[in-house]
Amino acid sequence: MELDRDQLQKDIHELYNREHAALGEAGTRDHLERGKALAQDYGLAKTLQDGGVLVFPHAGVADCGYQVAACVHAALDSGAPRVIFISVLHAFTQAMEEARQGVAAGHAPSDYPFWGIQGPGINGCQEWQGDHAPISWRYFWDAEIKRRGLKNPPEMLERFPYLAGGKPEELPGMDELKELAEDAVLVSTADAFHHGIGYGDSPDVAMQPDDEGLAKAKLVLEEGIRLLEAGDYWGYNQHCVSAKSDARDAGQVFRYLRGPLKGEVIDLTYSDASELYNAPPPTWVAAALYEWKKA
Description:
Largest sheet: 8 strands, mixed
Helix content: 40-55%
Number of helices: 9
Radius of gyration: 18 Å
Number of domains: 1
Strand content: 15-25%
CATH architecture: 3-Layer(aba) Sandwich
Number of strands: 8
Oligomer: single chain
Order of helices and strands: HHEHEHEHEHEEHHHEE
Shape: globular
């Protein structure tokens, strides 16, 4: 059955609204405190100061909000005047999905109107406005700024690349983004392993999100890490297709902007998506926090 992308987008926003509301003040504080400890344990602020990148998931906030919060703390503690969030841009229209498939099949990204970088203040395509990927980032960013009583917080810019196609340097808008990134720290997001019946895996191969399933997920995540470390942008693009990763464009862009990096998954959990896709379990997403250090 063909995926109703419009309805899925509405369902995701409704789910996110419910989950964030359910956190309340106490839940928000708990995630912020847990994220603060994680950021301090790994020295994540210094990773950003040194030109590295942090990548957090955008799955269920109750499951991985602390990972998002860790990146918020690191960005604020870095002392940088500007934070750039390189976001995933999901294919929530059939035309966007066809473009993504076309590029994966070898067609030129420039054949499609979505080719480029979207975001606030940029003319052209505006699909970014309906995307859910930044919701938890914005939520914890605003909450921690309020909690710290910051009157002049760093500038926070959101950028949404689409159709990098193995050549992120050719994306329209890249020159401007490179200039903005010179005195900024970079964070990004990825749900890099979607798995199970709701994502098209047959019941005989679908794994539970137990130790074995998470170990499998980590292996796949590390395959993607090795490809980006090598600067193999096209290989990474095609890896994201097979891994059901939504970060094919965001990953290529932050790797291009920062140059050689060494990546590691420093925290891994999962988020159940059975309800969202009205599918039986196992249907889940690996929720990983990546640390990318300058090589």
